[in-house]
Amino acid sequence: MDIQDIIKPENLVYDKPRLMNDNPMHYCPGCSHGVVHKLIAEIIDEMGMEESSVGIAPVGCAVFAYNYIDIDWQEAAHGRAPAIATAVKRLNPDKLVFTYQGDGDLAAIGTAETIHACNRGENIAIIFINNGIYGMTGGQMAPTTLEGMVTATCPYGRNVELYGYPLKISDLVAKLDGTCYVTRQSVHTAAAIKKTKKAIRQAFENSMAKKGTSLVEVVSTCNSGWKMSPEKANTWMEENMFAKYPMGDLKNE
Amino acid sequence: MAKIQGAVVVNKERCKGCNLCVVACPADVLALQAKEVNNKGYHYAYMENPEKCIGCASCGYVCPDGCIAVYKTKL
């Protein structure tokens, strides 16, 4: 059978999500952000929430998220996405409100906002991309950087006596009464991507059911910041990041 | 058992040549262009062994830039 005979609309099994537009993404080749963007676009389309979703874009690599997914977005100051999301959700309780933040945004400058939004139990979903580094600014050490990991600002590896320990913020917020769902996932294989999609879907549904704050941590790669090829970065993540940040649900009520 | 034949269409101008689809493919179908590049200068992915494709869409799931469409039919 000729390839052209297979390529027909009725045989389509996978395509770019409808809500993801044609703007070329500014992310580096192989960046995990693109996969998570696709999942969000797919889930919002499946839930039929295209006209009633508000995403809060962070400061960091995902700052231009509003250019790629055709829903309403609001840009927040650095780390303040949960505060903006609180306001949007309280004023528009019928909207699906979620934040999309990296580790430099959520776990460093925005730690207070994150913890207090989770503690208040705001009915928002937080998508947390944890790649253990400040990707956009050139690969500096983040609170989530692993012990011994080399970055631009700790060229001899992270020394815990000097810089402290990697911050496991998902474990922290899982202890708070305001959160209903805290999970840690990844997007390096097709199987992991399907699990992450289920997790994000559940977080969005919790938000609409007013059950409290949901946080989905996606352990990701930053191959540019880690100075590796995308496939090497995936292997390195499996070998090193998963030991410190194990996969699975931390809380599901 | 009915044989399944798949096909992958790569949006070559959107592709950044990250190679993740090539690694994810269980049937050794995809490869990056060895010499040709797209307008951005990336060695884009293409079907090197089209007859081996089973239409599992693993390449599509892992593609960070959403440049892959997958089709599948029973022969």
Report on the architecture of this protein.
- Chain A is an alpha/beta fold and 253 residues long.
- Chain A has helices spanning 3-6, 32-47, 81-91, 103-109, 111-120, 160-163, 169-174, 190-208, 223-226, 230-244; strands at 12-14, 53-57, 72-75, 96-102, 125-130, 133-134, 140-141, 179-186, 213-219, 248-252.
- The longest helix of chain A is centred in the C-terminal third of the chain and has 19 residues, at 190-208.
- Chain A has ten helices and ten strands.
- Chain A is globular, with a radius of gyration of 18 Å.
- Helix content of chain B is 13%, strand content 27%.
- The mean pLDDT of chain B is 93.
- Chain B has two helices and four strands.
- The interface between A and B is large, with 37 and 35 residues.
- Strand 1 (12-14) of chain A pairs antiparallel with strand 4 (68-74) of chain B, so a sheet runs across the interface.
Strand order of the largest sheet of chain B: 1-4
- Please state the second-level CATH architecture of chain A: 3-Layer(aba) Sandwich
| CATH class category label of chain B | Alpha Beta
Assembly state of the chains shown: heterodimer
* Number of E-type strands of chain B: 4
Compute the number of strand runs of chain A.
Answer: 10
**What form of chain A results from the Cα inertia axes?**
globular
Q: What is the terminal separation of chain B in angstroms?
A: 10 Å
Average pLDDT of chain B, to the nearest integer?
93
What is the name of the CATH topology of chain B? Alpha-Beta Plaits
Helix content of chain B: 10-25%
